[in-house]
């Protein structure tokens, strides 16, 4: 979905070099605006308000930086944080045009439950963002991936399966896997063989767990999932 355009109030920065540290300690963060249609600007903004705005726009939504009577239409290009405390240190903003398309990486949010990823299978989430091209105002803040449609053991969702808003073009290879249902090694063959030879559902359960213990001896998760398969087969 798209987000409403955010505004950051900023002012010209005069503190440079070692003086920037004192600026940060006073609750002000340095900003660098550069790119199309103007000169490079050294600015500063209130850290609290800047963090709040960055949390809304992320790296996908444009925002406006207002300096007095001047406004700059930008997108976040880089965020620098302290390596230990993760305190915000510096923000780079790229000046863009409202009428020219740009590329942006849009995060994916998975929702629902995959019925295919049960028993001897698991769900593999291969991509967590895709690259798109669109006008700045049309770039979605995120994209929803509905994994509830993955109801069989061989289900896949590719980038080309995503539903994109009007005006948004996929740049990522459309054949790239976003999510797949993957069978655990040997699970299908072992289960089929045991179903053919075991005289009762109870013995199937015991045999399946034995195979699981042999192939994944240290995985408690694998054991519990195999037990779930056994229960379903016994039913």
Question: In short, what is this structure?
Answer:
This protein has 235 residues and is of the alpha+beta class. The chain is built from five helices and 13 strands.
What this model shows, in words?
- There is one protein chain.
- The chain is an alpha+beta fold.
- The chain is 25% helix and 35% strand.
- It has helices at 19-25, 47-57, 187-197, 201-215, 220-234; strands at 6-12, 28-35, 41-46, 63-67, 70-81, 88-95, 102-111, 121-125, 129-134, 143-146, 156-158, 169-170, 177-183.
- The strands form 3 sheets. It has a 6-stranded mixed beta barrel.
- The longest helix is centred in the last third of the chain and has 15 residues, at 201-215.
- It is elongated.
- The model is unreliable at 189-235 (pLDDT under 50).
- Mean pLDDT score, rounded? 80
Q: CATH homologous superfamily name of the largest domain?
A: Ribosomal Protein L25, Chain P
Roughly what fraction of the amino acids lie in strands? 35-45%
**Which CATH class of the largest domain applies here?**
Mainly Beta
Low-confidence stretches: 189-235
Largest sheet: 6 strands, mixed, barrel
Task: State the CATH architecture of the largest domain.
Answer: Beta Barrel
Would you tell me which CATH topology of the largest domain applies? Ribosomal Protein L25, Chain P
Q: Measured on Cα atoms, how large is the radius of gyration? A: 26 Å
* Count, helices: 5
Helix content: 25-40%
Distance between the termini: 43 Å
Query: Count of DSSP E strands?
Result: 13
- In total, the number of domains comes to 3
How would you write the strand order of the largest sheet?
Answer: 1-3-2-6-5-4
* Series of H and E elements: EHEEHEEEEEEEEEEHHH
| Secondary-structure-derived class | alpha+beta
